[in-house]
Amino acid sequence: MRREPLINLVIILLLLAVPLTAQAMDEPFIVTLATKVAILALAGVGLNIALGLGGMVSLGHAAFFGIGGYMMAVLAAPVQAYEPLMTWPIELAGTKSMPLIWLGAVIAGALGALAIGALSLRTSGVYFIMITLAFGQMLYYFAISWPAYGGEDGIAIYVRNGFPGLNTLDPLQFFALAYAVLLLALLLAHRLGASPFGLALAGARQAPARVAALGIRPYSLKLTAFVLSGAVTALAGALYADLNRFVSPSMLSWHTSGEIMVLVILGGVGRLFGPVAGAALYILLEHLLGGISEHWQFFLGLILLGIVLFARGGLIGTLAGREVAHD
Amino acid sequence: MSAMLLIEQALNGLQYGVMLFLMAAGLTLVFGVMGLINLAHGSLYMVGAFACAGVAAATGSFWLGLAASLAAAAAAGAIVELTVIRRLYARDHLDQVLATFALILVFSEGTRWLFGSFPLYLDIPAALAGPITLPGGIEYPLYRLVLIGIGLAVAAGLFWLIGATRLGVRIRAGEADREMIAALGVDISRLYTIVFALGAALAGLAGALVGALQSVQVGMGEPVLILAFVVIVIGGIGSIKGALVGAILVGLTDTLGRFLLPAAFGTFLPPSEATSIGAALASMLIYILMAAILVIRPGGLYGRV
Amino acid sequence: MTEPVLEVRELHIAFGALKATDGVSLTLRAGEIHALIGPNGAGKSTLIGLIAGSLSPDAGQVRMNGQDVTGQDVAARARAGLARSFQVSAVAPDLTVLQNVVLAVQGARGGSYRFLRRALSDRSLTETATAQIDRVGLAPCRAIPAGDLAHGQRRRLELAMALAQRPRAFVLDEPMAGMGPDGAREMTVLLDDLRHEAPILLVEHDMDAVFRLADRISVLVAGRIIASGTVDQIRADDQVQTAYLGEERLP
């Protein structure tokens, strides 16, 4: 029963060891892959707050991932074009500073999640899945038809944004940054789960009528969790945009929502390190299968099917056994 | 002149709506009867379109292609139900989402493997090509008019099937109470396979019919799937009537929005801005409609909530 | 006479043609146990829903401590001091007994929107919760997930949660349901003691328990209260005897 913390430690150390080794062997591509794992895991940690703690099956988290990505472009593109961000009502310059961009992404993601969550949480179950999916798609179409940030083609930010004291263009340093943010988010998610709020949210997931009868509104709890979840996923989106130095509507597409959800489920829903294990496994599968066949997605689909039908609980569930109650 | 254009756009909206209904009807039945969310419904739409295009290209007959689309989609639906879907009824929605998402990957990549990445083209049958003059002097493509007719006929057929046949009684009983119909001695797993295959056939039919208007390509079913979800949210889960009303509402809103909004903005904005703002807003219009209905009636127009 | 803690005035609700609650008025006064009995389908659960706030009436009022709470939702009424238990146990199955009761303390005190501090490190929460757990006799089960409890233990957990709310009124929906004779006897002792904390509106099928505990009894049939009075008055009431004929004979 106490194997889970050990497994978590191994996973997080492996994620650190792989790029360090790759750097030593002069394989920058693998460092970039590890960075991608860390960022997707961060997006998954965000989704897991809604999905694992709150029991909200959101198939629209690409919306927040994309909002974070586009926030990066909105803030950094004016600098690249030597234009102000806005001139009215106040004159405001864009920024190439990651901390400011992250702040913008977190705020925008939280606001987006507040709007989408406030409407979607009026329903539950299958409705909730369809509605979050639909709102995600709405933003996708908006990004395609709105010409300001490249429309369908997206927009490139040629130079990666900066972080005080680091050279973000160096793959390993950028990895370290993403890894540190992931660790912080994991710590936050861990504290959240054990906090009074986490307790109330778990109650609202398992016995909503009871929680209401105790004087706590499940709707408000879930909406708060959804907003936190959207904010974390938006932060991941901003980092992902910086990894690729490119933003396009595909970040908002429902395939992205599906992928974030798949990697959370692969790792184990509600497990703290589920998204990390899931993201690593997902990227690994993508590259192993991609090396074998051009049609790797076909096999990925079959493997996913096999996992849902026969290996429930995800990777961490399989390795660590039944979840113990949080204490 | 502008009134005629408006009528033409309204007909386009209606045609779009009835095709969405074919998709949404199957989805909503599967939700209602089996409690299953099926993301792979769009793949069955794609299977129908590819079957039609393939058979039509080989035989030269659109009608043989159409028959093939029904058969292929129904068969694909039945096979998927027997091998995968029936293991998911007792699972939670999360497992259903993941499994049917995986099915999309298998279907999409499998189709790409078989047919390649290039879109196929499906010609409108010669007998239905060209325009027809409607009362009032409006010229309108005959094929689109036929699609409206087929869609409405299928809707009528479904209402009859659900309302007046033994299968319909069982479907309604299944929506109300699974245990009861098992107690009535109905073979429930066979009923589920039939309902799933029926929904698949409708999706395949829609894919084939629309395939002749657009191109037939991998991934074509997914935007339609999400619109079908919007239709169901608006209409209410499990309601065929809700699916029909929702589908036509979505079809008309989307088509007329794209037509009218840029023009409306043009009255007070310069043309280029009006076009881009109008188009961007029009692309969001049906979702705004969905949000409005959620605020007024969270269970949908004909939902049982 | 003091203001009733809980008062229901002329409540009506209909589901289609069915008048589930048809002009019900009743009061709950400090220190008493007021039992609500009636045959199955009489509308007891509907009435509880109306009182707790999960249903809103077509007409009539629910008042707590002299305040009209008819327009308030379940959570607001809970914070105003109403604690209810559910007919079918509703506890969070994956949370431990302690966590469930801490949740109840949190609900009463507020502070559910603290994000970073460990709930179980907050001794003011856990001490209050532990005291209630011990009181209902679940001390050995504190760390066990609620889903693993036996049925009778779960009913006690519900009671501990209601106690932890420090309510001004209890509304208990069949707390003895599904309990064996021993369990029911222990529960009767507990409830008897509880009335000093806050008055209890008790819906219960176990007539032995009702007659032992109740100060007053109201009889609900087809959405209406057909009789209300002391135990002896109800026993002697012909109308009540008639209403129960064929279902169960009053002892």
Descriptors:
heterotrimer; A: 327 residues; mainly alpha; ABC transporter involved in vitamin B12 uptake, BtuC; two-stranded antiparallel ribbon; 13 helices; 4 strands; 3% strand; B: 305 residues; two-stranded antiparallel sheet; globular; BCAA_transport_permease (chain B); membrane (chain B); Amino acid/amide ABC transporter membrane protein 1 (HAAT family) (chain B); transmembrane transporter activity (chain B)
Describe the model.
Chain B: One of its GO terms (biological process) is amino acid transport. Chain B: Its main location: membrane. Chain B: This is Amino acid/amide ABC transporter membrane protein 1 (HAAT family). The complex is a heterotrimer of chains A (327), B (305) and C (251). Chain A is mostly helical and 327 residues long. Chain A contains 13 helices and four strands. In chain A, helix 2 packs parallel to helix 6 (171-194) and helix 3 packs across helix 9 (218-244). The longest helix of chain A has 27 residues, at 218-244. With 305 residues, chain B is mainly alpha-helical. Chain B is 75% helix and 2% strand. Chain B contains eleven helices and two strands, in the order ααααββααααααα. In chain B, strands 1-2 form a two-stranded antiparallel sheet. The longest helix of chain B has 33 residues, at 2-34. The mean pLDDT of chain B is 89. Chain C has two domains: 1-81 and 237-251, Rossmann fold (3-Layer(aba) Sandwich), CATH 3.40.50.300; 84-164 and 189-197, Rossmann fold, CATH 3.40.50. Chain C is built from nine helices and ten strands. In chain C, the strands form two sheets. Chain C has a six-stranded mixed sheet, sandwiched between helices. Chain C has a four-stranded antiparallel sheet with strand order 2-1-4-5, with helices on one face. The model of chain C has no long low-confidence stretch (mean pLDDT 90). Chains A and C meet through helix 6, helix 7 and helix 8 of A and helix 2 and helix 3 of C.
